[in-house]
Amino acid sequence: MHLLVVEDEAKTAQFLAKGLVESGFSVDVALNGLDGRHFIEEQAYDLVILDVMLPGLNGWQLLKLIRQRGDTPVLFLTAKDALEDRVRGLDLGADDYLVKPFAFVELLARVRTLLRRGPAREIEVYRIADLELDVLRRRVSRGGQRIALTNKEFALLHLLASRRGEVLSRTLIASQVWNLNFDSDTNMVEVAVRRLRAKVDDPYLPKLIHTVRGVGYQLEAADE
Amino acid sequence: MSEPARGPSLAWRLATAFALVCALVLGVAGIFLYRSLESELVYRDDQALLGRLEQVRALIQDSDSLDALQQRPRLYQNMLANQESLLLVNRADGTPVITINPWQQALPPLTPIAEQRSAQASDIQRWPTLMLLAGATQGPRGEALTVVVGKRLAEREAMLASYRLRVYLAVGLGGLLAFALGLLLLRRALWPLRHMTETVAGIDLRSLGRRLQLQAIPRELHEPVQALNGMLARLDESFQRLSQFSADLAHEIRTPLHNLLGSNGLALNQPRSSAEYQELLASNLEEFERLNRMVENLLFLARADHGERLLNRQLIELHDLGEDLCAYFEALAEDRGLQLQNQLQGSLHADLQLVQRALANLLANAVRHAAAGSTVILGAARGQLFVSNEGEPIGAAHVGKLFDRFYRVDPSRAAPGDSGGLGLAIVRSIMHLHGGTVDVSSDEHATVFSLVFDTDAPRSGPGRAPGAA
């Protein structure tokens, strides 16, 4: 996957590129709007990450240029979380936006979601190591043993399984599982994950639910 | 420094009004007096003229002969006493017997009144500069004679003209005097205003506690001065809060910064294993998140205060909202042996995200402070949403400040996961955005926080709903 990052703040651009490369993407970086236009005109990208405030050409102008050339997904980065900025960005055809400052996992999750868009295949049964999650029958078992989960515990496990390998932030989990769309100040997600773990992970090996400290949670079978 | 005053001066306007009123009064009085004088003079001239005609008639009738009359013109001249008067006695054929006409005034033709009739004021014939009266009489030998008496009016006119001039002068000078005196008096009367201005101009941030003194100020200005003092008091209070807020903010920021500086400095002190570095970075990340959350919350509050955040109102199904919230807090509540009860019913027209946030903040507090084994209730009644929990009551001293930023009932209980003392401030801002209020009541039975959306609805005392106690 080939990505373009247009961001004038050098440190931000650097950590974005580094993180995306480590996550398996190939990345071009433009530090101003004119370089950005050059890249856009010369190459085809699977996704463009655009800062709004740019020297040379600003994000809105680049967005128009991109839209004239096709429907490459565009993720907007903005320091202002004023409502009109968001509305304007989405009106002009941005696919998503992220307000600075953001955690890198948050960006990664959005990027993956945008790239995954299109005909999504609804998976009916997830199998991770000896964990089995049957979406239709709402059943979970491990090593053939049925595990009884509450609705929210099931929703949480389903979310982790459907984004297997990705680190999911607490904010994302709160919004997907509990429908709460604000940056939570409380550690409810932590408590919920702990309780899920107690049922799904603690009595078994290998451990599947991993805490990435300060970042979020991840469901993955360890490589060993 | 200051902009030049654009509005008209109050003193000048009032002084001008004084001057106009004064001139008007003087003018009316002057016209009245002038008219009186004029009619008096006319009356006296008329009487003099009528008397003279009778005198001359009598004299002629009593005289021996016309010749004798003609020989004594001095007599008539003396009788007339001044140069303004004229006297003519003519025979019926028009030849003059006596002519005293110092100005050689040409006379228009006259119709004399009959001999037997005595003259009246209406018989006098008038021109702008002349009045004449003619009468028939008989001479000593029975011959018909015409007597004409008259008076030139030049002297009278000159006198009236000078009188008019004096009236004009009185009006003009009176007006000017009234203006000058009025200006002087008004300036003096407005002196307290200037004094007030100086006092107000002397008030700055360090002397916000100063107030304007009412004693030295005229009664008419008491109301504005009291309003001004009220404004100063409110500014003073807001400023105190702002100062307190800045101090608190600095303190809140210092804690994570202190942690970051300390742990990073220590880590760089000597080589560490990569596991130790990882541990450090993760710990740093937590502190940064804490700072980030604080900034986000403060930004939210600032925007809400300025009314910048637009409300995205929609119809909210309250029961579903309550279910989501209870599910979210369920795990934590169970850990603490608490029951969560969702009694929310019906629907509400409000911003879903903000209502969620407000209720979540209240629930987080309730779960944190509820007595172990008790029940936390989320309910609705009469346009209000409430969260109630049993537990230690909140002291009355705290209630007023509970919704201030960074205010904590117990400063030592600042848990790392809490909202950093901003949770209730955010709740209040959210309610302000909705045009509502947040109330709190606390006693030994329960602590109830109520979100009052419909401030018009009748309220029942402390906002406790049935079943909440």
Give an account of the 3D structure:
Chain A has 224 residues and is α/β, with parallel strands linked by helices. Chain A folds into two domains: 115 residues, Response regulator (Rossmann fold), CATH 3.40.50; 95 residues, Arc Repressor Mutant, subunit A. In chain A, 40% of the residues lie in helices and 21% in strands. Chain A has eight helices and eleven strands. Chain A has a five-stranded parallel β-sheet, sandwiched between helices. In chain A, helix 2 packs parallel to helix 3. Chain A is elongated, with a radius of gyration of 20 Å. The two termini of chain A are 28 Å apart. The mean pLDDT of chain A is 83. Chain B is of the alpha+beta class and 469 residues long. Chain B folds into three domains: 156 residues; 87 residues, Helix Hairpins (Orthogonal Bundle), CATH 1.10.287; 140 residues, 2-Layer Sandwich (Heat Shock Protein 90), CATH 3.30.565.10. In chain B, the strands form three sheets. Chain B has a five-stranded antiparallel β-sheet with strand order 2-1-5-4-3. A five-stranded mixed β-sheet of chain B has the order 7-9-10-12-11. The radius of gyration of chain B is 52 Å and the shape is rod-shaped. The two termini of chain B are 62 Å apart. The C terminus of chain B is likely disordered. Chains A and B meet through helix 8 of A and helix 7, helix 8 and helix 9 of B.
Give a brief rundown of this model:
The complex is a heterodimer of chains A (224) and B (469). In chain A, helix 2 packs parallel to helix 3.
Please tell me what the overall shape of chain B is.
Answer: rod-shaped
Termini separation of chain B = 62 Å
CATH architecture of the largest domain in chain A: 3-Layer(aba) Sandwich
Helix amount of chain B, in percent?
A: 40-55%
Largest interface, and how many residues on either side? A-B, 26 and 35 residues
CATH C-level name of the largest domain in chain A: Alpha Beta
Uncertain runs of chain B are 457-469
Q: What is the strand arrangement across the widest sheet of chain B?
A: 2-1-5-4-3
The secondary structure category of chain B is alpha+beta
Distance between the termini of chain A: 28 Å
